[in-house]
Amino acid sequence: MSTAARTNASATTRVLGRVRQAGPALVFGILFLALWESAVRGFDLKPYFLAAPSKIFEQFVKNASRIWQASMVSGGNALIGLLIGTVLGVAMSFVLNRYKFLGELITPLAIALNAIPIFVLVAVLNNMYSITSEIPRRVMVTLVVYFIVLVNVAKGLTQVRSTHVELMKSYAASDFAILRKVRVPNAVPFLFTALKIAAPASVITAFVSEYFGGLQNGLGSRITSNIANAKNAAAWAYVLGACLLGLAFYIASIILEGVTRRGEAK
Amino acid sequence: MSALEVVGASKIFNQGTTKQVDALIDVSLTVQPGEFVSLIGPSGCGKSTLLRLIANLLEPTSGSVSVNQKTAAQARLDQDYGMAFQQAGLFDWRTVSKNIELPLELKGWEKSKRETRAKEMLELVKLPEFADLYPWQLSGGMQQRIAIARALASHPPLLLMDEPFGALDEMTREYMQGELLRICGETSTTVVFVTHSIPEAVYLSNRVVVMSPRPGRITKVIEVGLGATRNEDTRAADGFFKGITSVREALRGTHAEHAAANAVRGVEDR
Description:
The structure holds two protein chains of two kinds.
Chain A: H1 3-42, H2 53-62, H3 64-98, H4 100-115, H5 122-128, H6 135-158, H7 162-170, H8 175-209, H9 219-228, H10 232-261
Helix pairs in contact in A: 2-10, 3-4, 3-6, 3-8, 3-10, 4-6, 5-6, 6-8, 8-10, 9-10
Chain B: E1 4-13, E2 21-31, E3 36-40, H1 47-54, E4 62-67, E5 70-71, H2 72-77, E6 81-84, H3 96-106, H4 111-124, H5 140-151, E7 158-162, H6 170-187, E8 190-195, H7 198-204, E9 207-212, E10 217-223, H8 238-258
Parallel strand pairs in B: 3-8, 3-9, 6-7, 7-8
Antiparallel strand pairs in B: 1-2, 1-4, 4-5, 9-10
């Protein structure tokens, strides 16, 4: 049977399907922008109240290089926190899987922490470190990512099918063999689920952390300073930059998942 | 020389607590090499527990189990048996071929030897062209055949099966029964087979072990005189119906004893 030909054909239909899926959302987005624009013009809304999309776009183009620089700062903080948080989260989930009593202690706490906006802790961190440092923001992103990754990967390591475990025991497999051949592969999709949540969360945390003071070089601090200077459209341009940055992180996590998964599907 | 010997085995869960369950009481069973033995009985009669005692996935509370003249624990370490469950239990992240190789990997076989054996096993279950596909690309019946190939990959003398065809449709199920007999005949494997289905037990087995619940025990062992070769004609033979009738009567007996209101609960009449 020609599996390759079938894969190609299905790839084409998949692309067409995506376009058909994205179509309505795209039309809605354009309509929404048009409505926004005409509302600002029609009701003659003052720029300090609500900026028109055309003005925002104008500011976005004008400030492109500055937005890019600020994105690099916030994005860099997010990326560093994301990497460290993921590594620590994965490592800790293995420890919790090995020592069940620790898991029983820490897992409920981690789940609870995931449900509250812990990035407000950045104010405390700012106080602990100097406010002229990127460290509090990076530590904050690391913490947020750490708990998301920990909870999900720990779940992936424990929630294995009982048939699989019985089967491995019938082969007299060691705990380590069960970990390597059953638990770890089972946890991989859970890691990617975690990354899909953690990637946008890391960006949000990185620039919301900037609202709490500290260095004035990232997207978040640019937004507050522009608003403080009544440059509403410019502030919106930085918001747009923040949206694009978050989107870039999310798309990267999806691509990463696609590359790693290849053969499998669920 | 017996392939399997269970002597006076009992299994009591949560002993001494209010949640105590007498899953098996004083069960003895001897299976000869090459024999096909089915365990049948209503839910809770301990047939799966008995299978897990044989597999050494559970320890008996009292009594002894020996497989292939060894203790059950030693037999498990030596991979003297293969096991198949109701769910095929294939690993989604491994190809069909890699799934079959798993028990050999754990035994420390080298790669080329494993691949050759996986190929042989795929020939045996008549799915050679599916080696590089993933389990989710196969039908339920095919997945179960791969699970059987995996269970037999290291050529164990004994195959333990826990309702392996329970989730399959009737047509596939009958086909799989024929295939199982052929495969076990070709490899001269001894089989202990847990099932809910009376015709399935009769069609497959040399002996059908009828069990009853609360406490789980063996009530009757029925010899099925259908001879060595069984095919589609067997399903219309007198001996087949006679076997079904005697198993059904034995099961009814266990019910009369326990006066279970919702009679044949858990036992299918197909």
